[in-house]
Amino acid sequence: QGQMGYMIQQSLQNRLIREGYTYQVMTVVTQVVVDKEDPAFQHPTKPIGPFYSKEERKKIEQERGWKVVEDSGRGYRIVVPSPMPLRTVETNIIQMLLDDDVVVIAAGGGGLPVVIEPNHTYKEVDAVVDKDLASSVLAREIQADLFVILTGVDKVAINFNTPEEKTFDELHVDEAMAYFHQGHFPAGSMGPKIKAAVDFLENGGSEVLITSIQEVGEALEGNNGTRIVK
């Protein structure tokens, strides 16, 4: 969060200066609260880090006790739990910055997962929170008017990359979840984005826009992208 936040912060700040804007940009290293009893801790599924050979996999499992799995035929990687985000710790700070017209970069990579101890302190845990779900929680907490999810395609589609592909200008929550359960939105691509959109809308949000960074300007004007609505 710190390293990439700095890169984004400086690049965006410089662009704003060149365009004549006076907005300040700030990166907030964000902690995300998860439940220590979340079932995900018993079933690690999120691949992280470098790729290992089959021999290296055995050595790591024996010496470290970590779970290592094959990842899409590219080699073996360590997997860690991916618990559901409950809330962000720094919400009030982020809100104060927003109220002061600061452009805030937060919840990078899904944030740093923490659990709450009996004495109400925070303790880090070895896990990775899904970035789309963490962003959905933060958007809900700051009562964002619009939650925009940028991805690699201009619009949400079913039967993606097949002759039967169909894109959507608008999807209702029920439709989106029906297609999700039919397997149209895989876990490694559009799935978490659809879940994040639905989570935002079902918890008080008004509208979600999913599109590519190249088309976000057109999409905000209603000329591209997919809007997820209640």
**H/I helix tally:** 7
Range of strand content? 25-35%
Helix and strand run: HEEEHEEEHEEEHEEEEHHEHE
Structural class: alpha/beta
Distance between the first and last residues' Cα: 32 Å
Beta-strand segment tally = 15
Query: Poorly predicted ranges (pLDDT <50, ≥5 residues)?
Result: none
Give the rounded overall mean pLDDT: 94
Shape: globular
Largest sheet: spatial strand order: 6-2-8-9
Any key phrases for this structure?
25% strand; 7 helices; 32% helix; 230 residues; alpha/beta; four-stranded mixed sheet; 15 strands
Descriptive overview:
The chain has helices at residues 2-18, 54-64, 91-99, 131-141, 173-181, 191-202, 216-220; strands spanning 25-28, 31-33, 46-52, 68-70, 76-80, 87-88, 103-106, 112-116, 122-124, 147-151, 157-158, 166-167, 170-172, 207-212, 226-229. With 230 residues, the protein is α/β, with parallel strands linked by helices. It is globular and about 55 Å long. The model has no long low-confidence stretch (mean pLDDT 94). The protein is 32% helix and 25% strand. The strands form 5 sheets. It has a 4-stranded mixed β-sheet, with helices on one face. The protein has a 4-stranded mixed β-sheet with strand order 10-14-15-13.
Could you write a compact summary of the structure shown?
The protein is 32% helix and 25% strand.
